[in-house]
Specification:
Helix content is 19%, strand content 19%. By secondary structure, it is an alpha+beta fold.
Length: 127
């Protein structure tokens, strides 16, 4: 879940102290965020919408049959449409999500799609 920092605070992440600056957007598990919300340090950036048609109207997403190339949402999520060219289908031994992000010029999101165990992108299938 994405949260906006309202007041600067420090937190320990993987043994290091990290300063959360005001107005930064951070991705935290809901359980961890609960305490910071109660302390008035962060707030939710948006409420997720379950209804796809409502979400599409809010986001202005184009889901027409012609929209078949992968894209990145405003919230930094890679979307690979099912009707996109097979080379993007990592679940069918296509290129990795990281390669797709590079094509889209979104190298800033690569770490989000890497597996922490070996540098392989999430969803990577061995040939």
């Amino acid at each position: 879940m994405m949260y906006k920092v309202l007041r600067e605070f420090k937190v320990r992440v993987k043994g290091e102290i990290v300063v959360m600056a005001v107005d930064c957007i951070v991705d935290l598990p809901e359980v961890a965020a609960k305490m910071f919300i109660q302390q008035g340090k962060i707030e939710k950036v948006f409420e997720p919408v379950d209804d796809l048609s409502e979400r599409m109207a809010i986001m202005g997403e184009n889901c027409s049959p012609d929209e078949i190339v992968p894209y990145v949402t405003d919230y930094g999520s890679l979307v690979i449409p099912f009707n996109s060219p097979a080379r993007y289908h990592y679940w069918k031994a296509g290129q990795s999500p990281c390669d797709t992000l590079k094509e889209l010029g979104r190298c800033d999101l690569l770490d989000k799609y890497r597996d922490i165990t070996g540098g392989r992108p999430r969803g990577h299938i061995e040939n």
